[in-house]
Fold each of these.
Amino acid sequence: MTVLAQTLPGAGTGRRPARQMVRAYVALTKPRIIELLLVTTVPVMILARRGLPSWWLIVATLVGGTFAAGSANTINCFVDRDIDKVMRRTSRRPLARALVRPAEALRFGIALGVVATLVLGFTVNWPSALLADAAILFYVFVYTLGLKRRTPSNIVIGGAAGCFPVLIGWSAVTGGVGWPAVVLFAVIFAWTPPHFWALAMKFRDDYAAAGVPMLPVVADAKTVTRKIVGYSYLMVAVSFVLVPVGHAGLLYLVAAVVLGAWFLVEAHRLSAHTRAGEDPKPMRLFHLSITYLTLLFAAIAVGQFVK
């Protein structure tokens, strides 16, 4: 706590209470994003074990994964602090509000990455630790530094960073990467563009003001929604592959069909409203996409106990 206190402006003068300080550092890690990443980890571990892994292994994997995701997100906040100040959606992040010094945020992010590597390496296995490191490096260097401000394909390629938790979960149980994990990697990879483009449609003006070429900034709404529909079909199609490849079971198949149909209906609704010149309400698809992924992975887990 003393170390953290020294990283904030006004620390030691009584102007920044410890609770506010802790909240600022936690906010740097983007906890809501971490929650979604962890939702995809445990079901994959259950699928790999064909049952419930040891609680110790689950906890160790989740703790290490949390530190790894927190590391990537914190360094992302460090790199993007200039545009976060411009965008209304991100203007209250700690670095945008100068609640944390940039150098201290960077050190904090790197420290989280080191802790993640050690936790996963010594308590889970080193393949999982290396996969976590790869996810951090991909998110920071490929997406944040390499693609985000340069190409509208940023989230398509860079979104792969968010797919690594399924590989880490599988590796934690088996020590390697199997085809079922690869299939789920592909599901999340195809899920990411509809999920994020729906959000970017809502905050198009934010991204435009920040000079970030998200697809809704550089393309018309009809093109964006057409691509959303295309990736949605790809996502649903790939989700079915887990049945023969991962022996996911009947419950998962039913869930994949029902949830997939629901997602496709909403994607087509978004496209239809856009073509008609009506308010497409893209946040409906954004929130649905989170529900879709959560329930699909829940079906993976429950399906291993319901035969």
Amino acid sequence: MKHVIQHDLDMPTAKRVADRAFAEYKSQYPDYQPSLVWVSDQRADVAFNAKGIKLAGAMLIEPRSIALDLDVPFLFRPFQKKALEVIDREVNVWLKKARAGEL
């Protein structure tokens, strides 16, 4: 599953947005044991546990987008839409704050 969220920020600010959004997700959904580990300035490994199954992938900070690419097993695809809604909501909250100088 690849999901892209457009932004109009510089790369360091976009990375801070991703960090803040992920931290908020982690505090709201600790049962999913979300983890985010930056492996470069632009790429982070992400992982979640859902019903005992580990979902792993990557987050990429690009000049005009934040892309999340997760390997989603077939059984979990019905929940994909809800997960994307939550991710969109969190990232867009922090994009708005960054544009307002609140980051």
Amino acid sequence: MKKSELFFSALQVPIDYAMIVLAGALSFWLRGAEEIKNIAPLNYTFSPRQYAQILLTVAVFFIAVFALDGMYYIRSNKSTGKEIYRVFRAVTIGLMLIVLGLFFNRDWYSSRFVIIFGGIFAILLISLSRISLRALQRFLLIKKGIGIHRLVLVGDNKICEGIYRQIKKRPDLGYKIVGQMDKISIETLQKIKNKTGIDEIIECSPGQVKIEELYLLKEFCLHNRITFKYIPALIETTNFKLEIFLGEPMIEVKNTPLDGWGKIIKRLFDILGALIGIIIFGLPMLIIYLVILIQSGQPVIFFNRRMGHKGPFDLYKFRYMKKEYSHGSQFSEEHNKRALAFLEDLIKKQSIKDGPVYKIKNDPRKTRIGAFLERYSLDELPQFFNVLKGNMSLVGPRPHQPIEVEKYQEYQKRVLTIKPGITGMAQVSGRSDLSFDDEVRLDIYYIEHWSLWLDILIILKTFPALFKKRRN
């Protein structure tokens, strides 16, 4: 999902709200005009301030109706006529619900003139604003290339040729063909991705591809956060969306609900949660900072290199290891080499976990205060600032170090397709006692079944999980 698409979709909400308020204000002003009052005297005593309070509330109600009616779907390519029809339908539904409410309680507001003309003005203003917004988005797309979807077509048949011709004829669709292949070649796709980038891949050769090849293509797309679409009857999956694209039935494999509005909602939730976390744990963090500083000096917070959804980043942690064993971007290259060499030796001798992720038993690198901090995950409190920065989320797969990620099997790389989290399903289901395969299984479930409510449940379960006994 392109940032420009998210931006324009999110922008529709405040603009729609403003247009509804403006429509209501215009209808109220028009009803109060002398010419109208001479024809039909006023039969209500609402002051402008009272009306404004009602109007601001009603506008929120209309936004909710719009959302439920699908007015805020992201990347909608509907025609202008269909867009106006959707506005007309949504406003009409909202007006009918308001009229139904007034039938039971006429004290709310009794001017039919204001209600009817408010609806007419809302349809006109919202339609005009959406047409203008779409025109701006289309201009940026065609003239500036902002929001363009880089597409690779895979297949050698008339269906593929037809899609290719129509995309070339219609730049307003928002696609740019960056590659066309007769057969699936992951190596070739990787070269295209490195050179130009890929946003979508369409496999349009029904019945001509081996399941094994198609599976590899699907995994390549999921691991690289590329939208994968294909002609029906190729892969069985429960996580898909069926659509008609340029006259052809097509199935899109869905990676996660964290596309589109899910991404916006989760980011807002992360920012709010991180700010609350910093306020609540501000004093404990200050105390921990001073204790580490007095006991072993600087650096108190070290930048631990981890792999996230967009590559390596610095994860902030209170330093729980002795300085000579700590490694991160604030240490010299020579220091990091020595620390990592010692770590590799420890992994070979004392790791109690199988697979790419290690767990050191009786870790000799910890300081006295560090053992306590890690025991209760207090060393991770600075990661609230990672969340504010945008390279982590409150909830998600735990980020691992590059030396661990290098050992991932192909299917395990799926956990790198969304932002890593401070806590996650693995942390509330067994913390570090889980095998890595179980951790991946839980993280993939989270990726495919994300919801805001699931995030809230995981956060609520995190606190009691901190006090469960772990292997040392």
Amino acid sequence: MTLEGFESLQQALARAPELVKTHAMSAVAASAFAVAQRARALVPVASGDLKASIESTSTGLSGRIGLVALGGPTGPSYYWRFVEYGTKYMPARPFFRPAAESEREGFIDRMRKIGPMLERDLASGRNI
């Protein structure tokens, strides 16, 4: 009996972890961007500074949604928490938490799609 194609299968399986990581990094980046976009859509707008300061970044398998430091110590990076959580003088108007919660299913769906994408990539011999 002769087993043909085993070498290519072995090479494809060796590439699998890197392909999974590549797809997972893409899913993290897409979800971080989606959360930032949703937060910008939900944030109450007075001057527009808070909305303009929302940003997303992703590095490898981690994503961050936060604020660019604008306006010094009294700018959006300081007062966002009063908008998000409220004060004794102002009711909470959350925008970060609802934005993150709205992306939960989207992120899970992106991660679930990695298996079929990995199968497709390995079957086609796609190089990363």
